[in-house]
Amino acid sequence: MASDRQLKGGCFCDEVRYxxxxxxxxxxxxxxxxxxxxxxxxxxxxxxxxxARFRFVRGEPTCFRSSPTGTRGFCxxxxxxxxxxxxxxxxxxxxxxxxxxxxxxxxSQDHTYVRSKLDWVTLADGLPRHxxxxxxxxQASVQRVSETTER
Length: 151
Prior knowledge:
CATH topology: Metal Binding Protein, Guanine Nucleotide Exchange Factor, Chain A
Largest sheet: 7 strands, mixed
Number of domains: 1
CATH class: Mainly Beta
Shape: globular
Strand order of the largest sheet: 6-7-8-9-4-3-10
Structural class: mainly beta
Helix content: 10-25%
Strand content: 35-45%
Low-confidence stretches: 136-151
Order of helices and strands: EEEHEEEEEEEH
Radius of gyration: 15 Å
Mean pLDDT: 89
């Protein structure tokens, strides 16, 4: 988990800006096919924050359902993918790390959905790898972080 600070970022054209306060959790590189297709990249770096402590401060993203339980937000002007909101985690929101003004502040801590990883992507960073999402113990830890940051 990253330290408690204010995180600021936005899309490429700067039409949509956001701020998040509190502790960032689940810093991951996601290799799922949906992330790859939506971004046009081999994987996407994400972090998770409390929805109660996340806000758009300029503009509003365009949103679409990318799966039966997930909604993605992106800039309607430049196309930058910004957020992912899961119906299964209504108190959290995932934010694309590289839309931060300072993405170096939140380095990824693992790889998720490596079952979908492209064969030509070589993972040599030594980070933990998860076939799908993290295991139940890690998910429970994230849930506790979410609950405490909303108080």
